[in-house]
């Protein structure tokens, strides 16, 4: 990165002082992370928002994260993104009008279906969760929140990530006969009502393309060539990958597992490669760390130091991330239920 871009970010940060805070998800490029005041996974970042006093919050990540920040921020705080086109492919797989229609149908049949949305979802989905007595979860608290949701009603609709849904359900001791993946083709006209009736957990058929790139073959090849290596993966991976790995957990779990690994270990990590490369470089002296396979999130990668510098130059007049006021309150309710259940 050119010295002038870095310098211009540092100068802007000095000028804005306590009126500015920069947050970034661990999947961001190093050149962005270097300038963040707080780097974290989805849960850590969401938890930090209510404590922020800065007038201007710059969020380096994807749109649902900045939306979440905007919902949790005070009305006088503004949330900005260096690139507003950075979206999440998985979040886009659960369009609110369709989810709303399906939830309405399920409730019309007399069942109390509690929606539990992975935080990787739009504000409109979070608002539906708020309205229907549900909540939100991240990969770091999915088991706690799924248990919570199961206590609130007859069934849980987990969305959008089917893989996180299955992996979490297994952690709670559920098995394949307890869940059913909804067939949402035809706008919900093909739902299998008898299968729905028998399931405790209804799964929305979304996934993260970045984590779905890891396959059993990748694990088997490492088991053969380096049997001593440990393989750790994110729970957005296919359930068969999670089951074959030595450990699975959120971004913060993966970072902790690396910090706690014994010197000399070899680790393969199945998650977004910006994070894996950062860990590889940070622990180069003591550990041998490799991506299970190189898989990058192109949307997370849209934010660059130069876009961050340009945004800081245009503050406070840059476009802000705003949430439709009609969904602000129910979306906040869903997020607060999560923050309350996972204190
Ligand atoms: P976590 O930060 O909850 O681990 O989620 C990973 C992810 O895919 C974020 O988009
Ligand atoms: Fe979405 Fe997957 Fe990218 Fe995370 S890594 S932002 S879940 S597409």
TrEMBL record:
Any one GO biological process: 'de novo' NAD+ biosynthetic process from L-aspartate
EC number: 2.5.1.72
Keyword terms of this UniProt record: 4Fe-4S, Iron, Iron-sulfur, Metal-binding, Pyridine nucleotide biosynthesis, Transferase
Cofactor(s) demanded: [4Fe-4S] cluster
Highest taxon of source: Bacteria
UniProt key word Magnesium: no
InterPro entries in the cross-refs: NadA, NadA_sf
Protein's name in the database: Quinolinate synthase
NCBIfam families reported in the protein's UniProt record: nadA, PRK09375.2-4
């Amino acid at each position: 990165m050119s010295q002038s871009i870095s310098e211009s970010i540092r100068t802007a940060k000095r000028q804005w002082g306590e009126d500015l805070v920069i947050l970034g998800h661990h999947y961001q490029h190093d050149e962005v992370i270097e300038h963040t005041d707080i780097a974290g996974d989805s849960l850590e970042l969401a938890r930090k928002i209510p404590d922020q006093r800065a007038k201007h919050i710059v969020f380096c990540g994807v749109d649902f994260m900045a939306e979440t920040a905007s919902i949790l921020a005070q009305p006088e705080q503004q949330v900005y993104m260096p690139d507003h086109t950075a979206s999440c492919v998985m979040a886009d797989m659960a369009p609110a009008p369709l989810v709303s229609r399906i939830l309405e149908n399920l409730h019309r049949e007399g069942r109390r279906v509690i929606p539990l949305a992975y935080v990787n979802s739009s504000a409109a989905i979070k608002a539906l969760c708020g309205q229907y007595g549900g909540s939100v979860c991240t990969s770091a608290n999915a088991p706690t929140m799924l248990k919570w949701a199961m206590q609130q009603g007859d069934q849980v609709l987990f969305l959008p990530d089917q893989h996180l849904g299955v992996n979490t359900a297994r952690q709670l001791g559920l098995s394949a006969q307890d869940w059913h993946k909804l067939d949402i083709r035809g706008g919900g006209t093909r739902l299998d009502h008898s299968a729905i009736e028998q399931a405790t957990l209804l799964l929305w058929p979304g996934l993260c393309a970045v984590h779905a790139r890891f396959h059993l073959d990748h694990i088997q090849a490492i088991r053969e060539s380096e049997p001593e290596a440990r393989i750790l993966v994110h729970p957005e991976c296919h359930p068969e990958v999670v089951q074959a790995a030595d450990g699975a957990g959120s971004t913060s779990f993966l970072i902790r597992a690396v910090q706690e690994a014994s010197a000399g270990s070899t680790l393969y990590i199945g998650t977004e490669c910006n994070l894996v490369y950062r860990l590889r470089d940070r622990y180069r002296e003591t550990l041998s760390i490799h991506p299970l396979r190189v898989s990058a999130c192109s949307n997370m990668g849209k934010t660059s130091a130069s876009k961050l510098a340009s945004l800081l130059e245009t503050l406070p007049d840059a476009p802000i991330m705003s949430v439709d006021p009609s969904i602000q309150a129910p979306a906040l309710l869903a997020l607060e239920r999560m923050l309350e259940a996972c204190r």
